[in-house]
Amino acid sequence: MNRPQYIERMIEIIKRMPGVGPKMAERLSYHILKMSENEVGSLVDSILKARHIIKSCSICYNLSEHDPCSICTDSARDCSIICVVETPQDLIAISKVKDYKGLYFVLGGVLSPLDAVCPDDIRIDNLIKRLKSDNINEVIIATDTDSKGEMTAVYLAELIKKIGIIDIKVTRIGYGLPVGGDIEYADEVTISRAIAGRREM
């Protein structure tokens, strides 16, 4: 028996979300239909408000209600260190580690020749401009430890050295993270060890 077209449409939309397969999309769709009118209204309202209010910080590109974000305006942070991450989710994961007190920069992705993602497609130029204008002593490259993350880390390290900012030390997060693992899903202890065990590139 065919499902009603509006349920099919809802499943198709939810299925496009990362990590959501057909079965999960179906379960979520039917769960939403069981929710009360108030719950559905709150869900829709929170999505619409997030879409309209949340913006990218003009300094680090983290998602925030304010520009600059609360991290960039925090005077207690060490402004001489920048941790470069792929996504705002990675930034949130690392920010839970109490040992790290520096600043951040969100690349917005990683290099991937097979997916036609080149340096111009992520915020590498913005990062270099920031390194040239701010008084930065160390760049911690905290991209994921999979092949794309490693490729991006090596590219950034070589680029920073090539542009002649000799005072900047470039380090890579340590081996607290498993090879091929995603920072977003790592626990605080693992990330803390990775930050503490970073190595120079």
Question: Could you walk me through the main structural features you see in this protein, from its secondary elements to its overall organization?
Answer:
With 201 residues, the chain is α/β, with parallel strands linked by helices. The chain folds into two domains: 49 residues, Helicase, Ruva Protein, domain 3, CATH 1.10.8; 138 residues, Dna Topoisomerase Vi A Subunit, Chain: A, domain 2 (3-Layer(aba) Sandwich), CATH 3.40.1360.10. 42% of the residues lie in helices and 13% in strands. A hairpin with a 6-residue loop joins strand 1 and strand 2. The termini are far apart. The mean pLDDT is 89.
**What's the architecture of the largest domain in CATH terms?**
3-Layer(aba) Sandwich
What is the top-level CATH class of the largest domain? Alpha Beta
CATH fold descriptor of the largest domain: Dna Topoisomerase Vi A Subunit, Chain: A, domain 2
Number of helices: 7
